[in-house]
């Protein structure tokens, strides 16, 4: 099967498509709070999926990393308002030290092509 890599850089591709499966690299957002960063991050997910003809309704799985589990509820408030309630993906969430101290949340997405 063909592998398509989009937005390639020296370290990674932002989007990798293999067959009918779309893999996004880890997405982070901007802002000072977990809610702002989550909303910004999910907006990037929307844009990347739209670029390859997919959407949040086709997300298969999401792995979310947050820098402090004390922010879990606030992150979930934004996630729950964003996700398609008819098509929720498999999801995991854990606490991790992220690449920069200012980052509060990161998501890794795997989705299907419609």
Largest sheet: 6 strands, mixed
Strand order of the largest sheet: 1-2-3-6-4-5
Mean pLDDT over the residues: 97
N-to-C SSE series?
EEEHEHEE
Gap between N and C termini: 17 Å
Number of strands: 6
- Helix proportion of residues, in percent? 25-40%
What's the shape?
globular
Beta-strand content estimate: 35-45%
What is the structure about, briefly put?
The chain has 2 helices and 6 strands; from the N terminus they run βββαβαββ.
Which helices and strands appear, and what pairs or packs with what?
Elements (H helix, E strand, L loop, with lengths): L2 E6 L4 E6 L2 E8 L5 H18 L7 E8 L5 H11 L7 E6 L9 E8 L2
Parallel strand pairs: 4-5
Antiparallel strand pairs: 1-2, 2-3, 3-6, 4-6
Helix pairs in contact: 1-2
How would you explain this protein's 3D organization?
This protein is α+β, with helices and mostly antiparallel strands. It has two helices and six strands; from the N terminus they run βββαβαββ. A six-stranded mixed beta sheet has the order 1-2-3-6-4-5, with helices on one face. Strand 1 (3-8) and strand 2 (13-18) form a beta hairpin.
Q: Can you give keywords for this protein?
A:
37% strand, six-stranded mixed beta sheet, 2 helices, 114 residues, alpha+beta, single chain, 6 strands
């Amino acid at each position: 099967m063909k592998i398509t890599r989009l937005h390639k850089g020296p370290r990674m591709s932002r989007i990798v498509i293999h067959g009918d499966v779309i893999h996004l690299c880890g997405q982070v957002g901007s802002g000072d709070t977990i809610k702002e960063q989550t909303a910004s991050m999910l907006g990037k997910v929307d844009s990347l999926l739209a670029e390859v003809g997919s959407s949040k309704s086709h997300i298969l799985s999401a792995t979310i990393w947050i820098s402090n589990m004390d922010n879990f509820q606030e992150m979930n408030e934004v996630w729950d308002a964003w996700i398609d309630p008819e098509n929720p993906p498999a999801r995991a969430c854990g606490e991790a030290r992220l690449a920069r101290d200012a980052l509060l949340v990161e998501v890794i997405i795997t989705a299907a092509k419609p």
